[in-house]
Give the backbone structure.
Amino acid sequence: MVGAVSGAVLGAFILGAAVRYSALHGSGVASPGPAGHQTDGRSRAEAPVSPGATLTSTEVPPTRVGDQSLASATQFVSEWFRALNRAVSSGDTSRLAAMSAKGCVACARAQQVVQEAYRGGGTLRGGTYEVRSVGADSFWSPSHPVVQVVFDRSPRTSVTAAATVRSTLPGTTFATCQLVLTWDPHGWRVREVLARTSIA
């Protein structure tokens, strides 16, 4: 992918964020949590839009999901992965951006990967996510909103407008990550994504 961070480098980048977060908040963040709320195992992309399209603030669907309960947080995380699928499948990162906090480094990198892939008529083939489960972190609380996610990602190919392959990213199964959330007046937002494999 031209100008895009490779899957391996992005994975290392996110892992570095996990180390920094753990240093600030203690070792509990990296500990796998007990089984939590199970999703239906699907995280499908929403209806496609024009590649690279940007929705206005009034067109971006509301992102508020319930209250600050664990059930609300797990529902929001499933919606966030649907927004990520929409971005990968269409090039439209508006909803993903709306559901991510401004300081989320991994979220910004994911948006950058998508935007660079779709620039100049390019596209991404594959690379969508299927969420297997979403559960509470060991130290879950409204003041420590961290959830564990197990997901699959299909193989991904970045191609130019002329269908020339720019880069590929292998698929993965039973990959895990932690989503650190934050609550603002509009509801949940993803503050950071901590993972040993690349998210985008």
Strands lie at 123-126, 129-136, 146-153, 156-159, 165-169, 172-184, 187-195.
